[in-house]
Amino acid sequence: MKMSAIAALTLIGVTTAACVTATQQKENMLSAAGFQIRLADTPAKIASLQSLPPHKFTVQNQNGQPVFLYADPTVCGCIYYGTQDNFAAYQQMVFQQQLASEQQMTAMMNQQMAFDYGPWGGPFIPY
């Protein structure tokens, strides 16, 4: 097998694993926010699940109240459903996660700024 084919297969595998991990993390937050899960375990439920956009929120009206749906046909073959409060809790978790990521990135950048390039000649100085 050629090296380019091996590299392409490796890239596809890593990308797929990263997508599954990100989706699983999102679904963990949905559960933590109070969303309920229903498995698509009948042909009618599978067809209904497939009619929704995958891995995206949709809002339906049930008895005059909004119900937030999140369809996952690939990882769990299920639908997550919750209330406005569940969705607000999920959004708060996403915000906290983004804030933590930004703080981590800032800390890494500050650590890199403290690196002494003197012995190396600096990153922009030619040899």
TrEMBL record:
UniProt signal peptide: 1-17
Taxonomy, superkingdom: Bacteria
The keyword Signal belongs to this UniProt entry's keyword annotation: yes
UniProt keyword terms in alphabetical order: Signal
Protein name: Uncharacterized protein
Organism: Ancylobacter rudongensis
Taxonomy of the source species: Bacteria, Pseudomonadati, Pseudomonadota, Alphaproteobacteria, Hyphomicrobiales
